[in-house]
Every structure is written in C-alpha cells, then in structure tokens.
Amino acid sequence: MRLKRLLQFIFFIVYANSFSQVITGNVLSEEGIPIPKVLVVNMSSNQKVYTDVFGRFSMAGKTGDEVRFAKESYKGEKVIALNHSVTVNLQKIPQEIEEVKIIDKRLAESREEKLRKDIGLPKGPDKPREKPADAVDDIVKPLIGIPPTLNFQAIYDVVSGKSRRLRRLYRYEDLQEGLAWIKQNVDWEYFQDAGIKPENMNDFLMFALRDERVLMYMKAKNIGGITVSLDNNISPYLEVLSRKK
Predict the structure, then answer these.
(1) In this structure, are residues 139 and 158 in contact, taking their beta carbons and an 8 Å threshold?
(2) Are 86 and 51 in contact (CB under 8 A)?
(3) Which residues are within 8 A (CB) of 154 and not within 5 positions of it... i.e. 6 or more apart?
(4) Which CATH number goes with the domain that contains 20?
(5) Any bridge partners for residue 88, and if so which?
(6) pLDDT, tens only, 203-215
(7) Which residues are paired to 68 by β-bridges?
(8) Are both 86 and 115 inside the same structural domain?
(9) Tell me: the pLDDT tens digits for 51-71?
(10) Known SUPFAM superfamilies for this protein (predicted)?
(11) In this structure, what are the phi and psi dihedrals at residue 210, rounded to the nearest 5 degrees?
C-alpha cells in the first residue's frame, strides 16, 4: 500500500512538473481579434513557435521567461511570463494609403511591385531626388506620341550614363539607410542568442539581404516583418558558416 501511494505521489510530482514547463497563450489585435502566424520566441530556451488560426500558441517554458512576439505589419512585443497562460495584444503599424494610379495593364509588373502587393505593404513616399531619365518613358514614348517630341536632356542622360550612375547611387544610399535603420531597431540580443556572433552581424545582414522579403520590409521600415524575415534566414546562414569551417 505504501509503495502504491509512493508511486502515485511520484507520478503526481512528475506530472505537475511537466505541466509547469509549458506556456500557453493567445495573441490578439487591439480589437481583440486573434492573430495567426505570429512568431513567438522564448528567449530563455530560444524555442520558436507560430500561433495557429485562432491566435493560440503552446511552447516549453516556465514563469519568469521572457517571450517575444513578431508579426508583419505589427509592432513587436515582449512580456515576462508571470504565469503559465499569457495573453498579448499587438499594435497594428499605421499604414499609409497608397495613391490610386491608372496602370497600363499591358505592362508586366516588376517582381518588387508584385511582392509588395502580395505581402500587403504600402508604397513608401517618394524621396525628393532627381529622377533618372528612362529610355522608354522619356525618349521612346514621347517620340511616338501625338505630336512627337524629342527630349534632348533625357537622351544625353541616358547616352552619357548619368541615369545609370544616379540609379546606382540611389540604390547605395537606400541600402545604407536601410542597414542603419535595422541596426537601430532590431534587438540584436535575440540573434546573438540564436547563435550569430556580434562580429558576424554585418555578414549575416548582407546574407539576409538576398531575400526579397528582407529588402521589402527594410524599405517599408516594418519592424515586425523584418524580424520575422531575418529570423527565417538564421538557420540557412548558420549552415553556410558551418560549411566554411
């Protein structure tokens, strides 16, 4: 009888301990609507899960663990688990309403424009820059218009290579601005805990920038999107590093 009670007691302790090692929760919008596919990370164990279609998640963890949440188009959030059930409300990032434009349907959309629309990002405001001349828009189209016109400045800019140099300069400036924004806004402790050493951060960023989604979220300055997209590049990057050793 004593042995039976002892076994029951041991079973209870093991069961209770196992239960205490799980954190469950819900992720909701400010309006109380469940948010699916939110990246949830336990910073103590570096375990990652995504919320289901009802905004629910379950992961290994204990009280006192720091849990972080990231989702495209939402501000990131972090909480300390005070108990084994967590409810988090994510704040939507204000989106600029894109100007409605009439687009020639015969023209194929660029990959960047298509990707931007697919992931629902607004188009950022245009910078006050000199517009590089385009051979088709600024030379060919005016020539076949009624009446035909000749844009000598555009012809000079294209032939001399000025347009190409301007585009290259703008790409470089945008890249440097985007990298500076990422470094100022992304929590690098998270990536260090994931196995990326501080001296490899720049190398990791350049690796991740091959991902079109990383570029898109960087341009849109979307912290939730950039966190998720960078996270998706951690494992491939670490795999590349391991092959170099």
Answers:
(1) yes
(2) no
(3) 133, 134, 138, 139
(4) 2.60.40.1120
(5) 27
(6) 999 999 888 888 8
(7) 41, 78
(8) no
(9) 999 999 999 888 888 888 888
(10) Carboxypeptidase regulatory domain-like
(11) -75, -15
